[in-house]
Amino acid sequence: MGYPVVHFEICGKDPAKQHAFFGELFGWKIDANNPLNYGIVDRESNVNGEGAGIGGGICDVPPGYDGHTTFYVEVPSVADSLDQAEKLGATRVMGPETPMADLTIGLFHSPSGQLVGVVQAPGA
Predict the structure, then answer these.
(1) All domains in the chain, ordered by first residue
(2) Which of 33, 56, 67, 103 is disulfide-compatible with 41, CB 3.0–4.6 A?
(3) Which parts of 11-72 fold into alpha helices (H)?
(4) Which residues have a Cβ under 8 Å from the Cβ of 54 and sit 6 or more positions away?
């Protein structure tokens, strides 16, 4: 069985403007009231009638960085997945990092340049 895509991320300049745009366009409820000021897209506002949809986030970027759009795949071990990705020709961008309790993430560029995230399964 494969690993599931569990989160998307849209990062760019002026997160308040992004929250307003994507919230209005797609009907998403976005809450950035957290220590990271990370705009969490409420999963319940991002599903269709059959319940299909995933949660995500909208975030700010540091000066000099234009931003990115990516998705995160839930894996048993971020460290092992990043190591395996590198063995398969990927370039590690970040991680493993633990920005907050119970959250370990990493990012890599695939051999053809896509930015892909991995997130450790809770309790792994």
Answers:
(1) 7-68 (3.10.180.10), 76-124 (3.10.180.10)
(2) 56
(3) 15-26
(4) 5, 6, 7, 8, 43, 46
